[in-house]
Specification:
This protein is α+β, with helices and mostly antiparallel strands and 188 residues long. The protein contains six helices and seven strands; from the N terminus they run βαααββαβαβαββ. A seven-stranded mixed β-sheet has the order 1-2-3-4-5-7-6, sandwiched between helices. α1 packs across α3. The radius of gyration is 16 Å and the shape is globular. It starts with 6 loop residues before the first strand and ends in an 8-residue tail after the last strand.
Length: 188
């Protein structure tokens, strides 16, 4: 018999930075996030959101109380340089959100956890952000695991776009995934 699994999340705190740094150093994360991992870089890049100084949300996700993932959630309109590049290649609703995500522990990958986390965050987004019309996620075309997870979580591929990659070793081809607010969940 399978033990129930409880997903919870909270805003990332500065005290979580050492754990986040460990995750960013994992090869399966580093390949796609390509992030500086010094303690100073982690504090510089994640500190403003942790302190509430910028509108994005960095959410530490736990399974049965154990941290396993990070989900970043924000309104695309809060990042005009990025939305401009994306909107020139696909429709972006005025009140669209986006997410980015990672599973920190390599032993927790490939088990459907990413799909469960993404479904839960999407569902919470409709409540937490009642004016959000959709969630749009560009994924590098070579990141098969990520775009397959989005499909399993209910996203549909809506476009291909040529965007600056997170990792300079990659080309610019991205698949753009989208999920819209369900009918009856009213957008204000």
């Amino acid at each position: 018999m399978r033990t129930p699994v409880t997903l919870t999340w909270r805003r990332l705190a500065e005290s979580d930075f050492p754990l986040l740094r460990e995750w960013l150093l994992q090869p399966h994360v580093a390949r796609w996030w390509n992030h500086e991992t010094s303690p100073e870089a982690v504090a510089r890049d994640f500190g403003p959101a942790a302190r509430g100084e910028e509108p994005s949300e960095d959410l530490l996700v736990a399974v049965d109380g154990e941290p396993v993932a990070l989900v970043q959630r924000c309104r695309l309109a809060d990042h005009p340089q990025y939305i401009g590049e994306l909107a020139s290649q696909t429709e972006v609703p005025e009140r669209a959100m986006t997410i980015d995500y990672l599973i920190g522990d390599p032993g927790s990958t490939g088990r459907g956890l990413g799909t469960r986390v993404t479904r839960a965050i999407v569902e919470a987004t409709w409540t937490d952000h009642p004016d959000a019309q959709s969630i749009i996620v560009p994924v590098h075309s070579a990141n098969h695991a990520s775009w397959r997870m989005l499909e399993k979580a209910g996203f549909r591929r809506c476009a291909e776009a040529f965007l600056d990659p997170d990792n300079p070793v990659d080309d610019r081809l991205h698949f753009v995934y989208r999920i819209d607010r369900p009918a009856g969940r009213g957008s204000t």
